[in-house]
């Protein structure tokens, strides 16, 4: 990788959109020339600034350590789950939050010890629960009465005692997209608090011989910028915690407030994570102190806020189309197969050309994917210089829920993933090939 002096660092008011530009006007990620990365690894290519991943995790640790409380950070692996990512977050002192057998398998295969893993999910299968119990993972978060009974049977059959938490829907309406709000009453997740479901779940757990309920969990949504939702959730959960710990004498020691800390994609005002964590800790100290209950170990589950800002996706620019008086279209060699978030959530992004990253925008260009689907768009009306042959489009803040949600629509292979740090790049996910796409296909009647 050619070494070039960095002469300018452009950083917006929000940390998700850092642009590190060298003397050739090229974008750099993790000290690596983004254009050279595409020559080495092809496009589409997802590049993570590895040092930024580590720095973000350390910032979470620093807040808790400054507050002098017992805590655990568990990376929500659904944001981006690969062996390399699991290894990295564990190296940085995090546990792993998984929601499927596949994520559990990935975490274990990466070398993360079972005790550092806990499992979520609103419909864990018997096989997944068997797997989790067999591996003796750190905790299972019970989501409903069906699962409570099923897990008790599995644990009893294996002669195991399993640490569990219950997921509580506290009825908090966080400021978030309706499709990613998970903490209200009308949700597929968790035991409802206001109707008494959560209290009844704790009563059943107090009688369960093989399930040891060690605390409560809630997750009020995603892309949350206001700490108030977390504050209200902690206040509501404290009453239930008192009921379980004092009245039912359950061995409570954990209050897990989930994740959902927002990041900046375009013009969102993302507050420093320290403000939100400090508000959560202050509320917990005050409420539990008032109830004269020892402060539980506080768990959080950041995913997007760790992975999202550190990721940049690089695409080769292809065809262009001007519709006079309507819109300009710019096509790339990826699309909804590696980033379905606009189609799912109406997500918005910021982009530049990696090969002329400081060029002045000249027009509005809507970035379209290559799939046979009119909804296959990445950005609507992005301010960009007019495209030229050889341009590499860089889309920022694509580290979370992009590769994780990637599909094979139109039989398009999944992209490669690279970690970049101190000017050196490491391939952590190989690019799929067309042969990979048919590897598990079976010909008709064995022909």
Automatic annotation (TrEMBL):
The keyword Ribosomal protein does not apply. Residues 53-307 form the Orn/DAP/Arg decarboxylase 2 N-terminal domain. Homodimer. The modification N6-(pyridoxal phosphate)lysine is found at residue 78. NCBIfam families: lysA. It comes from Alicyclobacillus dauci. This is Diaminopimelate decarboxylase. The gene is lysA. Pyridoxal 5'-phosphate binds at residues 260, 301-304, 401. Its EC number is 4.1.1.20. The keyword Amino-acid biosynthesis applies. Its cofactor is pyridoxal 5'-phosphate. InterPro entries: Ala_racemase/Decarboxylase_C, DAP_deCOOHase_LysA, De-COase2_N, Orn/DAP/Arg_de-COase, PLP-binding_barrel. Specifically catalyzes the decarboxylation of meso-diaminopimelate (meso-DAP) to L-lysine. Substrate binds at residues 304, 341, 345, 373, 401. It catalyses: meso-2,6-diaminopimelate + H(+) = L-lysine + CO2. Keywords: Amino-acid biosynthesis, Decarboxylase, Lyase, Lysine biosynthesis, Pyridoxal phosphate. Signal peptide: none annotated. Pathway: Amino-acid biosynthesis; L-lysine biosynthesis via DAP pathway; L-lysine from DL-2,6-diaminopimelate: step 1/1. CDD domains: PLPDE_III_DapDC.
